[in-house]
Amino acid sequence: MGVVTHEASGGTAIAGLGITEMGKVYGRTATDFAVEAITLAAADAGLALSEIDGLLVNPGVKNDTDLRLQSTLQMRDARLLATMQGFGSSAGQMVQYASMAIANGMADVVACVYADAPLTEGKRAGASYGGQKRAMEGVQSLQFAAGLQAAPERYAVAARRHMEAYGTTSEQLGAVAVAARQWASMNPDAQMREPITLADHQESRMIADPLRLLDCCLVSNGAVAIIVTSSDRAEALRQPPVHVWGWGQAHPGYVNRRDSEFGLVTGAAPSGADALAMAGVKVDEIDVRELYDCFTYTTLVTLEDYGFCAKGEGGEFVASGAIAPGGSHPTNTGGGELSSFYMWGMTPLSEAVIQARGQGGERQVDKHDLVMVSGNGGVLDFHSTLVVSPHRKS
Amino acid sequence: MPHSLKAVVRDGHSTTFFEAAAEGRLLLRFSPSSGEWSEPAARVCSVTQAADLEWREASGVGSLVSWTVKPGRATEDRPAVPTVVGLVELEEGPWLPLQLPDVDPADLAVGRAVRVEWVQPEGSEHLPVAVLA
């Protein structure tokens, strides 16, 4: 067992990153992927697996891995161990809880992993996210019975409300998809690298109006793990540390009644403000944005709620080219969930680590001193934010 | 009325709701202490979180907040049939997610007046749908 370095005010950092083969990778379970990702992340950090004394496990839609991953990893004497579930906000949440545990001397090196294997060979990807399969009971099932089942149709209702309130257009949503693909074309690990045009977006199959196929994220098998430790310890390890400057969570608890801001304002607004305040920076100091993009609309509304543009102006903002390569506000620089891979909040978080380290290769953003990362779960129900930096917070 | 709703069966909480539904009456949750209405699934008041909710009959009149149109898939026998699902704000305040059978998507607009009607899928309780008022 290692000696705990108590770091009440020294801060924490992401010291390791492990990404497995991703996408249509069959014949392996979520646990198989999780073990590989943690092993890769430890090696990336220059740590032995035996030095990990905390493990947070976030299973995806299939929910088929959990804290028993500890025994699979032959991991003795863990001092922090839990299955975490905040849906798409989980990755950011895990960094937050790991940081608090480390800052309080509870653990020293915490591995956080997301793993999922929803794709089955020969079956449509949508079948994995098809929603209700059991017989439906009670008034809480009325929305499913009416036809609001899978994520696209539920996000479609949110997007439609935004469009009607602010004049956001399908073409503007398309600009998000095109930008993501432009970034992905420079990412050798992205699943979808073939360039697309706005016309391709407009001609893509309607899934749930206003969302077309190219408004929707991918579905992937795989796992991503990160290693969180104290900033002091991270500085002695193999990779450039990615220091955690600030964080927030906001779960709006939309109530189904007339004052609901569903579709208009998300948890990103308070969560982002909290994270920026904790980091001690202003939104216009952020260099790179890695935003949870389950749908094009989610990118757009998160940009508004974080304050990169005014409420209701997200459509014009993305259509201006601001978020694309060469634009003023580089966003989702690996291609995001739309074009790279779909590992819930680990998709934006892993790209944030790569960019902060300066390891983005062809897609590396020149100025990457502050990176803002979002996680979004449910139908805009759950939100987490991180602000990270290659520099230690002074 | 042609629709594509799926069957729902009652549970303990929804027994009173579905008894009324069979008579064509829409019940919502009402809090006497706050005077506010809540959605049928609510366990406490959606404004004050008071625990005094009771079932009370609502007008069944409301307006459209948002919607989606699912295009459906064509088969060899028939063309694709779109499904329209909307969020309806009842005049008492609560929102209900309701299918709008037989509506032309071109007629949909924020604030469009609708009223609740009822359908009964096979093996199901009576379920609410919305029609343009």
UniProtKB/TrEMBL annotation, chain A:
Superkingdom of origin: Bacteria
Ranges of residues in domain Thiolase C-terminal: 255-388
Organism (species): Nocardioides deserti
Any single Pfam family the record assigns to this protein: Thiolase_C_1
Full protein name: Thiolase family protein
Gene3D superfamilies: 3.40.47.10
UniProtKB/TrEMBL annotation, chain B:
InterPro entries: ChsH2_C, NA-bd_OB-fold, Thioester_dehydratase-like
Domain ChsH2 C-terminal OB-fold, first and last residues per copy: 55-119
Protein origin, superkingdom: Bacteria
PANTHER family: BLR3430 PROTEIN (PTHR34075:SF5)
Protein name: OB-fold domain-containing protein
Organism of derivation: Nocardioides deserti
